[in-house]
Amino acid sequence: MSEPFIGEVQIFGFPFAPYGWALAAGQLVPIRQQSALFSLYGIQFGGDGVNTFGLPNLASRQACGAGQSPGNSRRPMGQAFGAPTVALTAAETPMHNHAISEFEPSDPSVLTAAPTPASAIGIVGNSGFNAFAAVGASGTMMNPNAIGLSGSGAPHENLQPYLGLTYAVALTGNYPYFD
C-alpha cells in the first residue's frame, strides 16, 4: 500500500484501525498531538479549536459527498444528516381511499332483519365485530373498525441495505497540498 495522505479516510475489512490510523468514530484529539491533521480538519467534525478537534464520526453512518448536486440539498463538509428511524404522516402516504361498496337487491325480501354472525363481516376469532346494520335502521353508524384510521404512527427503520466495516483516518503520511 502506498503512503496515505494525512486525514485520508479508508475502509478496512477488519475490526480495528491499523498502526498510524485512528477509528473514524468522532473522538476528540489533542491539537498538540496531531497539528498537521488539525490544520486540515479544523473543527468541522467537532472540538473547541483551542485544545481539541474532532475526527469524522462514521460509526453506523454512510459517507456522502460534500457539496450540492442538481435537485438536492447542499451538504457542507462535516455536517451529519439523516435519521435512523422515520414516522410517516398522512401527507406522506400515497393518496388512497378505503371505499366500501354496498349491495341493495331489487327484492328486499332477500334481506334479513338483523345480521347474524354468519352474515356479518368480521375478524377471525372475534364474534363481536359487525360491520352491517339491521335492515331499515336509520342513522346507524358503521363500526369504526370498518372505516377508521389504521396504523400507529410509530417510527420504523429507514435504512438502505448496508454492511458494517471499519472506517479509519490516516494520522501519518503525506501532507495533501492543493493548488
TrEMBL record:
Taxonomic superkingdom: Bacteria
Domain Phage tail collar: start-end pairs: 7-61
Matches recorded under InterPro entries: Phage_tail_collar_dom (IPR011083), Phage_tail_collar_dom_sf (IPR037053)
Protein name: Microcystin-dependent protein
